[in-house]
Amino acid sequence: MVSDGLDPSWWNLSLSLGTEAIPPLLPELIAAALAILGAMAEALHARRVARVAHLAFGPRRRPAAWAVAAPVFRVLSLAALAWGFTTLILEPPTVHGQIELPDRQKRHILLLLDVSPSMRLKDAGPEGNQTRRRRAAELMESFFERVPISQALVSIVAFYNGAKPVVVDSRDLEVIRNILNDLPLEQAFPTGRTTLFTALEEAAAIAKPWNPKSALVVIVTDGDTVPAQGMPVLPASVRDVVIVGVGDPRVGSFIGGRQSRQDVSTLRSLAARLNGTYHDGNAKQIPTALLAEVIGVEESGIFERLTRRDYALIALGAGGLTLAGLPWLLHRFGTRWRPGVPSPERRPRPLVPDDA
Fold first, then answer.
1. TM spans, by residue (predicted)?
2. What does the alpha-carbon distance between residue 219 and residue 190 come to, in Å, rounded to a whole number?
3. Which contiguous run of DSSP H or E holds residue 156?
4. Taking burial as the number of CB atoms within 10 A of a residue's CB, which of 73, 106, 247, 317 is the most buried?
5. Where are the alpha helices (DSSP H) in the chain?
6. What is the separation, in whole angstroms, between the first and last Cα of the chain?
């Protein structure tokens, strides 16, 4: 490991030559030069092999059909090794850990978490044996595993009969897990009725200074009490809203002298009023396709995620494996000609017995 006081790129050739002095296509130029030298060497080698072809390949003076391409493989492997090594030398080393993104690239995930006493009712999950709060924690655990959390800042607002920000712009997943699973957040509020709109007002105040369309608001609630009027206006920084309902939507449970259940129709209406999306999280996780759509990051393929360093490592592996394996392949399968005296097991048996 390199301490923070030292430059981890001390070995980098770009520091000794200067960034401006290095041609932008230096790895490609070196690979091309080595490919030309390798082709010249292969041509000279082919002339020498041709002189003793009858000894190496027998009377036909020709190797196996695939072995004709061996010089091409060797030249390409040398070029791949040269390009890979040069690229790794010139590319900056990979930095593992948290990287501070520019302000224009920062994304925000604002979670509004219902912590009312009804969230302690045990009627959630595929089997109906989880509390609504526990189901909400599982849904958000899966959520954070599938979104690019390294490129996002997470804020959490807990709400009951009021709203309180718990954490703002955090990247520490352990802190977020602790909030979702262990903190008795309902104790921070006096007894009363759930007021979801106060959470939306608090979310609007937090998200107002953020860049336009840089925030995703996720509301996790059982939708027990949602007023019909007084919808707050979310700022331009909010890209999308996802409302996740927890709790049994069919059979309610009694609490505080009334029946509480997930109010699907109210949550759907609320999502429509916020121009967002509703998902019933009681039995199913949030779909990956929905996450990719609302988070604003399309799910890229494996080749789209590869960097120049990754391609350099692939080139080194392929080139080194080819150069190491070609001699053995040529020795074993380069020709069918096997000079010398055959072993006793391979000698043909006489047609007439010896005692005849």
1. 25-44, 64-85, 311-330
2. 21
3. strand 152-159
4. 247
5. 13-17, 26-51, 53-57, 70-90, 132-146, 173-181, 196-207, 264-273, 288-295, 308-333
6. 83
Which residues of the chain register pLDDT less than 50?
1-20, 97-98, 298-299
* 27 Cα distance to chain centroid: 28
Give the pLDDT score at 305: 65
Question: Could you tell me the residue ranges of all domains in the chain?
Answer: 13-93+307-337, 103-295
Question: What is the three-class DSSP state of 64?
Answer: coil
103-295, what's its fold?
Answer: Rossmann fold (3.40.50)
What distance in Å separates the CA atoms of residue 279 and residue 38, rounded to the nearest whole number? 61
> Whole-angstrom Cα distance, residue 31 to residue 225?
68
**Which residue's entry shows tokens 């999950």?**
125
CA distances 281 to 147, 195, 252, 288, 314, Å, are 17, 21, 16, 13, 41
Q: Give the closest residue to 87 by CA, choosing from 311, 262, 256.
A: 311
Pairing of strands 152-159, 238-245: unpaired
pLDDT for the residue 341: 61
pLDDT tens digits along 172-189: 888 888 888 867 888 888
- Within 13 Å and on the Cβ side, how many CA atoms surround 264? 10
**pLDDT tens digits, 312-352:** 999 999 999 999 999 999 888 888 777 766 666 655 555 55
| Nearest residue to 177 via CA among 149, 216, 206 | 149
Give the CA dihedral 342, 345, 348, 354, nearest 10 degrees: 120
3-class secondary-structure state, position 2 = coil
Burial tier of 109 (Cβ tally within 10 Å: 0-12, 13-18, 19+): buried
Position 131 scores a pLDDT of: 85
Q: Is 327 helix (H, G, I), strand (E, B) or coil?
A: helix
Rounded to whole angstroms, the Cα distance separating 329 from 322 reads: 10
Distance CA 20, CA 27 (A): 15
Cβ neighbours around 148 below 10 Å, total: 10
